[in-house]
Each structure stands twice: as C-alpha cells, then as structure tokens.
Amino acid sequence: MIKIHLNLFVTLSKYLPENSECFEIFENTSVEKLIFDLGIPLDFVKLIFINGKRQDLNYQLKHNDRVGLFPPVGGG
To answer: InterPro entries, alphabetically (predicted)?
Structure first.
C-alpha cells in the first residue's frame, strides 16, 4: 500500500473520503482506477493534476503523490 494526498474540487468534493489527506491505495494504481474506486463517473473528471503537473488517466500513482481532480468548468 502507498499513501497519496487527494483533493477533489467543486462538484467532485462530494466523493472525497474522510481520510483524503493521507489516502491509502495499492501500488501501481492508475488515476483511472482511483477514479473508479472512488465511485466517480469518468466523464465527471476533466483535469488531472499530480504534484502540480497535468497528467492523464494512465498515470501510475506513487507514494506521497498529491492528486487534484477537477470537473469540467463552464461559464460565460
């Protein structure tokens, strides 16, 4: 098991687990698998940031990664 720091923003925050500051996952978990395990529909996630850099769904999470997930943003 590894620990990550999880931040879900705006409408995704309702999927945030209680222990998100130090969330445990299995080694070699992809961002896509994390999203699935959290029960978030994949089309609800538009932007993925790991340690402040944009990443894709295939990124393999590492110990102490800081994960930020953002929904699509609209406005006008």
So the answer is: Beta-grasp_dom_sf, Mopterin_synth/thiamin_S_b, Ub_Mut7C
